[in-house]
Write a structure and sequence with these properties.
The chain is of the alpha/beta class and 227 residues long. The protein contains nine helices and eight strands. Bound molecules: 6-hydroxyuridine-5'-phosphate. Residues 6, 8, 36, 63, 120-121, 149, 151, 174-175, 177-179, 195-199 line the site of 6-hydroxyuridine-5'-phosphate.
Length: 227
């Protein structure tokens, strides 16, 4: 199972009800759910806690894309850990000393998986991230993060990330569906999970679409791995 569903409530809805409704509809299907600022800004940490409390997936991800000094990132991580999250996402570009080294230590103490953004899925990411990509990957190795975010929209980037990192880091790839990547392409390039938001959450029948995505992932992986 390689599907993570991104729950980003639209501005016009009750974010808590919207998320819980989707979680219930998708019960048992995805490997994880990812929530972030669209929910927290709207509904606060209590809202996050309420939403997280109904998730029974292996991965419960807070995507706040932390990018600050270690002290502040750690404060925020303690709050979301207390709300029931088991994985947090931070930006790799903030570096190690005084930032990710401290966050990594706090995550270990709390039993939280740390995922670092090393390349993003939108076209404009190329301008800066391409130049610093290998530096960012070296930071991932240095602090021994649990995983990285790499773009499903750029399978070549996923492939070179996998080649650099080797098999022991998880690769989470957003950009499937609404941003144009096809289900399974990032998995074939070396990702462990594909993150899918609007394609599923805005569908009339989210469960049906989620099952179709998983079927397409499996078909694509069978074709590319020849098994
Ligand atoms: P969607 O499938 O609706 O495009 O959603 C993608 C999700 O993945 C969003 O929650 C977004 O914040 C996240 N994401 C992304 O799209 N690109 C990145 O490079 C990193 C992300 O976390």
């Amino acid at each position: 199972m390689s599907l993570i569903v991104a729950l980003d409530p639209p501005e016009s809805v009750d974010g808590i009800k919207w998320c819980i409704n989707l979680i219930n509809k998708l019960d048992g299907v995805p490997k994880g759910f990812k929530v972030g600022l669209p929910l927290v800004v709207k509904e606060g940490i209590k809202g996050l806690k309420e939403v997280v409390s109904v998730m029974n997936t292996e991965l419960v991800i807070a995507d706040l894309k932390l990018a600050d000094i270690g002290y502040v990132m750690s404060l925020i991580t303690k709050v979301v850990a207390d709300a029931g999250v088991n994985t947090v996402i931070a930006h790799a570009f903030v570096g190690t000393e005084g930032a990710l080294s401290e966050l990594s230590r706090v995550c270990s103490e709390l039993g939280i998986k740390l995922v670092l953004v090393t390349f993003m899925s939108h076209p404009g990411a190329v301008r800066v991230m391409k130049r610093v990509f290998s530096d960012l990957l070296s930071i991932v190795k240095e602090i021994n993060a649990w995983g990285v975010v790499l773009p499903a929209t750029m399978p070549d980037v996923v492939k070179s990330g996998r080649e650099y990192l080797g098999p022991s880091f998880k690769i989470l790839a957003p950009g499937v569906g609404a941003q144009g990547a096809a289900p399974g392409d990032a998995l074939c390039a070396g990702a462990d999970y594909e993150i899918v938001g609007r394609l599923i959450t805005r569908a009339e029948n989210p469960l049906k679409v989620a099952l179709e995505v998983i079927k397409k992932q499996e078909e694509r992986v069978r074709a590319c791995r020849g098994s």
